[in-house]
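Milestone 3.1: sequence recovery, worked example.
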């Protein structure tokens, strides 16, 4: 991807839309053969940390956005879809979530969603990149909504795998909010059977784990989603895959819950709506009982792909 216009893209943009290709454009590769472009008003930060490249921009369509290694992580326009979909199904499936573990979540929006729950007494967040968190605190206030100042948040910097291995704490919900499990990326080990096995051992008796698991479109679901789901199922046995449309990601996005007890897909919509009123301090913009029914009603092609998946991600055989 690049913020530098090329003659080809300028001509293509003008001829297909009659919109003059003025200013800077973010050309993001959804795949090597598919590009999504957004005009950029302002670049607030561009640089590298010891772990990854980072850009924070103001886009004309999606607003304030965080990009890591050239991939959109969240935008002001639709981050609520991603973060509510990631957090709320598992949190509301648990009868009384009090202690939560977050792997990643640098924007602070995952912590924001967790801390809306009145029952939560402690949320441990471990992100490997302190510089990204610092930038998000400064430039993404509408993402974190002040979550970093909540005394219930216990923030640490480092490898979430190593951190979880060395502590004796037990958690009601573990949430994996890290970039896709690319072998060269900093988070690939958090999508392995070894990590899911460790995480399961750190869950309370009725605990749940949820991970973002990549795109679920017809041409992309076997890239990441199906193998992450199969790997989690290999550890938990009871696995609940689901998807939500996140426009800034270029399509539908997948999530997978591994559970030691509760079934998040079976909660009656009216019961769930009452739980939201009783348990959450604040207003959800995306998730409710009706939405929950839709999230877990994944299409036939995706169910078939999941049924046919045989791969398991391990530390010796990363994705």
């Amino acid at each position: 991807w690049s913020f530098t216009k090329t003659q080809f893209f300028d001509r293509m943009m003008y001829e297909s839309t009659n919109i003059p290709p003025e200013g800077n454009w973010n050309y993001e590769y959804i795949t090597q053969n598919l590009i999504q472009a957004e005009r950029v008003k302002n670049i607030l930060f561009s640089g590298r940390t010891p772990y990854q490249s980072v850009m924070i921009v103001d886009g004309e369509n999606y607003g304030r956005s965080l990009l890591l290694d050239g991939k959109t992580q969240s935008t002001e326009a639709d981050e609520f879809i991603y973060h509510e979909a990631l957090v709320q199904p598992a949190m509301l499936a648990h009868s009384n979530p009090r202690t939560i573990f977050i792997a990643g979540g640098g924007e602070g929006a995952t912590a924001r969603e967790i801390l809306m729950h009145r029952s939560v007494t402690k949320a441990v967040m471990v992100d490997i990149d302190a510089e990204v968190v610092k930038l998000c605190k400064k430039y993404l206030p509408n993402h974190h909504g002040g979550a970093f100042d909540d005394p219930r948040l216990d923030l640490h910097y480092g490898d979430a795998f190593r951190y979880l291995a060395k502590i004796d704490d037990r958690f009601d919900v573990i949430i994996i909010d890290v970039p896709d499990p690319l072998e060269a990326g900093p988070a690939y080990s958090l999508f392995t059977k070894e990590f899911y096995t460790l995480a399961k051992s750190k869950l309370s008796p009725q605990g749940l784990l949820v991970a973002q698991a990549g795109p679920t479109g017809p041409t992309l679901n076997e890239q990441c989603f199906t193998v992450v789901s199969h790997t989690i199922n290999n550890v938990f046995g009871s696995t609940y895959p689901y998807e939500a449309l996140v426009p800034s990601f270029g399509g539908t996005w997948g999530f997978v819950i591994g559970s030691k007890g509760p079934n998040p897909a079976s909660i009656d919509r009216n019961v769930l709506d009452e739980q939201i009123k009783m348990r959450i301090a604040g207003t959800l913009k995306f998730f409710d009982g009706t939405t929950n029914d839709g999230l877990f009603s994944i299409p036939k092609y995706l169910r078939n792909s999941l049924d046919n998946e045989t791969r398991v991600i391990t530390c010796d055989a990363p994705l």
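The first strand starts at residue 24 and ends at 31. DSSP finds eleven helices and twelve strands in the chain.
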